[in-house]
Amino acid sequence: MSASPDAVSVSPDRVSVSPERATAVRAAAAGELGGEPLLSVRGLRISVADGSEVVHGVDFGIPRGSAVGLVGESGSGKTLTCRAVLGLLPAGVEVTGGEISLRGTELTTLPAAGRARLRGTDLAAVFQDPASYLNPSITVGAQLAEVLRVKVGLARRAARHRAVELLHAMGLRRPEHVYAQYPFELSGGMLQRVLIAMSITAEPELLIADEATTALDVTVQAEVLELLTELRRDRGLTLIVVSHDLAVISQMCDTVHVFRDGGIVEAGPTRQVLRAPRHPYTRELIDNHERFGIDRVREQRSRR
Ligand SMILES: Nc1ncnc2c1ncn2[C@@H]1O[C@H](COP(=O)(O)OP(=O)(O)OP(=O)(O)O)[C@@H](O)[C@H]1O
């Protein structure tokens, strides 16, 4: 990062732009520029165990069926924001202000059991390290079938049948064989497909992919991104894609929200933000992306 942390202001409220521009950033971030939001996050504040605030009043909306990218440097608050939406904040970390509404239902005041019920059935997530979410001593098929029994209520035989179907639908060849394999026998890309299968068993409307392809090699990454795009197209899944990789965001997302230091500094249609970034920090992200040899963003920008 060439600029010091203080070189760019951290939230639309503190950026020196015209009031009209600040309003436009907030409106874009809140999803008001397109469609009825499936998810609406307003003024979200998150504090950690020592009392310090790490997310400072974030606003955004996710229109149903859209793919929304969250980008920004490490530690800018993307993951905690997603975990707050899922109701899965780490111990000692808590929401201290704001609202998170899913189809009009306020989530921050729901009891833990209610939040747990929503996970899987309405909201789901896949993260960077799929192996850590699987039990190493149980076959992946048995684990997937168990989710189908618990979350969908299928009987044992039906769950097995559906699990094989899902593995097939995730693009895994020889799904019967994969069903009987243990996590250590599968590659990272295969494990991520299994996790994606698990996450969509109960047909949630919103899937959060938090650096879900970061650890995969480029070809496998492209295949998993393609799978997510297909799920969006074929099942109407709404996606939140968290990534450091602007090429991933450019490929997948209709809109992008740029996080910095716990706030959103710029938001809007991906193409517009990447082509004509308005905020110095967004420009810096794009320049860094290009400087480090990942030229796909510029290629995609110039092709359009
Ligand atoms: N369990 C925790 N306890 C204390 N502080 C935390 C905890 N988790 C995250 N933080 C802090 O909260 C801030 C936001 O973290 P977060 O993980 O949301 O950032 P991020 O943008 O997702 O980063 P990355 O891209 O590296 O995942 C950071 O300053 C981080 O150090």
TrEMBL record:
Membrane topology, as annotated, equals:
Peripheral membrane protein
Q: Which CDD domains match?
A: ABC_NikE_OppD_transporters
Any idea where this protein resides? Cell membrane
> Where the protein is mainly located, per its record?
membrane
- Keywords assigned by UniProt, alphabetized: ATP-binding, Cell inner membrane, Cell membrane, Membrane, Nucleotide-binding, Translocase, Transport
Keyword Signal listed: no
Keyword Cell membrane belongs to the record: yes
Identify the residues that the record assigns to the ABC transporter domain, covering every copy: 39-286
Which Pfam families does UniProt cross-reference here?
A: ABC_tran (PF00005)
Residue ranges of region Disordered?
Answer: 1-20
Coiled coil (residue ranges): none
| Similarity comment: family membership | Belongs to the ABC transporter superfamily.
Q: What is this protein called?
A: ABC transporter domain-containing protein
Q: What is the lineage of its organism?
A: Bacteria, Bacillati, Actinomycetota, Actinomycetes, Streptosporangiales
